[in-house]
Amino acid sequence: MTQILIIDDEKPTLQMLKLYLEVCGHEVLTAENESKGIAVFTTHRPPIVLTDIKMPGKDGFAVLRQIKSLAPETRVIVITGHGDRDLARQAFDLDACAFFNKPLDTEALEKEIKKIEDALQRSS
After folding, report:
1. 32 Cβ contact list (under 8 Å, min separation 6)
2. Residue pLDDT, tens place only, 49-101
3. Closest by alpha carbon to 104, among 5, 9, 14, 4?
4. What is the Cα 62 distance to its own chain's centre?
5. What angle do CA 12, 18, 22 make, to 5 degrees?
6. How many CB atoms lie under 10 A from the CB of residue 8?
7. Predicted confidence band at 41 (pLDDT cuts at 50, 70, 90)?
8. Is 102 helix (H, G, I), strand (E, B) or coil?
9. Which of 14, 22, 42, 51 has its CA 20 to 30 A from that of 63?
10. Mean pLDDT across the chain
11. Which residue range forms the structural domain that includes residue 104?
């Protein structure tokens, strides 16, 4: 069972993703903002993190940079309701492994997570 951290200030999105990923067999941690997300990440070190970009305070790019500085091997998936090519390019430049627009295609997200899990198993 892969542990996944979701960081998103929109509680309905956070809860929907948590329920969906738990049904898919993952252990899910959640945080409503950047500071809580980094605290949870530092404590649990999940191999996969999903972060929203647009959040009050520090944005998802700050989360991505901080997580990658703490644990470069962590796979970070960026999610946003404000997606465009520039945001996607910026996310990939910061070493995000995937970029999804809201509303999320949960099947595509689960396929991406399975791909990440396979890569993590091969590298360990």
Report:
1. 7, 8, 9, 11, 14
2. 999 999 988 889 999 999 999 999 999 999 998 778 899 999 999 999 999 99
3. 14
4. 13
5. 150
6. 28
7. very high
8. coil
9. 22
10. 94
11. 3-123
Question: Rounded to an integer, what distance in angstroms lies between the CA atom of residue 105 and that of residue 95?
Answer: 21
Q: Render 1-66 in DSSP notation, one character per residue.
A: --EEEEE-S-HHHHHHHHHHHHHTT-EEEEESSHHHHHHHHHHH--SEEEEES--SSS-HHHHHHH
Check residue 48 and give its pLDDT. 98
Q: What is the CATH number of the domain that holds 65?
A: 3.40.50.2300
Structure token pair of residue 44: 């649990």
* pTM metric for this prediction: 0.95
**Residue 59: burial class (beta carbons within 10 Å; 0-12, 13-18, 19+):** middle
pLDDT for 84: 80
Into how many domains does the chain fold?
1
In this predicted structure, what is the pLDDT of residue 123?
84
